[in-house]
């Protein structure tokens, strides 16, 4: 059974304790933890809080930036990622999400080689902690500085090149759901999936992420969900909503709307 979760980016202004209490109250089984909130609240306190609210950690976001696009040397980014692996292990997170980093004026072959080398080193460290890694493709319209890996095919190519069994993929429907090829790729992608995130948007991303409430946009989340289930995906499903189109909606309303949408999409009946 797929764990239904919500990313802390969806309630960005709330703190860890408020997030956990609200997610549990709205019937979510899991939480996608955002590392800055974890740092603010503290690892040990977070572990106690999760036990109190019975929330599973579906993801930890994020590690990466191995191309230097965020100003850090590669070694610093790798060391930070290994630190994130330890956090993920302590949280018993389903996966640690990894972002490649932007091209940063490198030629593509150099950026690709740098990424693969970093991922192999981190995968080896993660294996010893029992942590799964998942590379996330980011739409180029809102994430050139975050990742030069922009679609499912590019992510699969990197995963297969690194060739380590604990490196998989995060599929976020906001980033890849507007690609007409996504549905055709899904059966091949499912064996590599560690996490599926659901988002929606009224148009292709331009500049910054601008997600809308689920069902208000143009992403075929129902078709994607059905294809995932038909293809045997049984991993966690996480909702991520952030952007101008949801900023004026109260967080409790966002959570309730997301839960109702997901219940309808999955055919779930709640008592």
Short description:
With 271 residues, the protein is an alpha/beta fold.
Describe the structure in your own words.
The protein is α/β, with parallel strands linked by helices. The protein has a single domain, classed as Divalent-metal-dependent TIM barrel enzymes (TIM Barrel), CATH 3.20.20.150. It is 46% helix and 15% strand. An 8-stranded parallel beta barrel has the order 1-2-3-4-5-6-7-8, surrounded by 5 helices. Helix 10 links the parallel strand 7 and strand 8. Helix 9 packs parallel to helix 10.
Would you tell me the structural class of the helices and strands? alpha/beta
Strand content: 5-15%
Give the SSE string: EHEHHEHEHEHHEHHEHEHH
For the record, the count of structural domains works out to 1
Low-confidence stretches: none
| Shape label | globular
Defining traits:
Xyl_isomerase-like_sf; 12 helices; IolE/XylAMocC-like; alpha/beta; eight-stranded parallel beta barrel; EC 5.3.99.-
Topology (SSEs and partners):
Layout: E1 4-7, H1 16-25, E2 30-34, H2 35-41, H3 43-53, E3 56-64, H4 74-91, E4 96-99, H5 108-129, E5 133-135, H6 140-143, H7 152-162, E6 167-172, H8 173-176, H9 182-189, E7 193-198, H10 221-230, E8 237-239, H11 244-247, H12 251-266
């Amino acid at each position: 059974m797929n764990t239904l979760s919500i990313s802390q980016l969806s309630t960005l202004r709330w703190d860890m304790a408020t997030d956990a209490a609200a997610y549990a109250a709205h019937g979510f089984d899991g939480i996608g933890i955002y590392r800055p909130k974890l740092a603010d609240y503290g690892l040990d306190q977070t572990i106690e809080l999760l036990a109190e609210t019975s929330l599973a950690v579906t993801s930890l976001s994020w590690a990466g930036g191995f191309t230097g696009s965020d100003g850090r040397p590669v070694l610093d980014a790798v060391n930070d990622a290994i630190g994130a692996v330890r956090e993920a292990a302590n949280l018993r997170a389903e996966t640690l999400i990894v972002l490649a980093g932007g091209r940063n004026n490198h030629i593509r072959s150099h950026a690709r080689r740098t990424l693969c080398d970093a991922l192999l080193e981190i995968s080896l460290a993660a294996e010893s902690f029992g942590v799964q890694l998942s590379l996330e493709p980011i739409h180029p319209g809102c994430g050139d500085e975050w990742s030069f890996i922009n679609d499912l095919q590019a992510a699969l190519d990197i995963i297969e090149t690194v060739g380590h069994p604990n490196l998989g993929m995060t599929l976020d429907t906001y980033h890849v759901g507007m690609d007409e090829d996504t549905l055709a790729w899904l059966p091949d992608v499912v064996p590599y999936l560690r996490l599926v995130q659901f988002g929606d948007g009224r148009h292709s991303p331009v500049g910054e992420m601008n997600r809308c409430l689920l069902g208000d946009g143009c992403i075929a989340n129902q078709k994607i969900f059905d294809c995932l289930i038909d293809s045997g995906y049984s991993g966690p499903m996480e909702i991520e909503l952030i952007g101008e189109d949801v900023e004026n909606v109260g967080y409790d309303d966002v959570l309730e709307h997301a839960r109702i949408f997901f219940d309808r999409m999955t055919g779930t009946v709640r008592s």
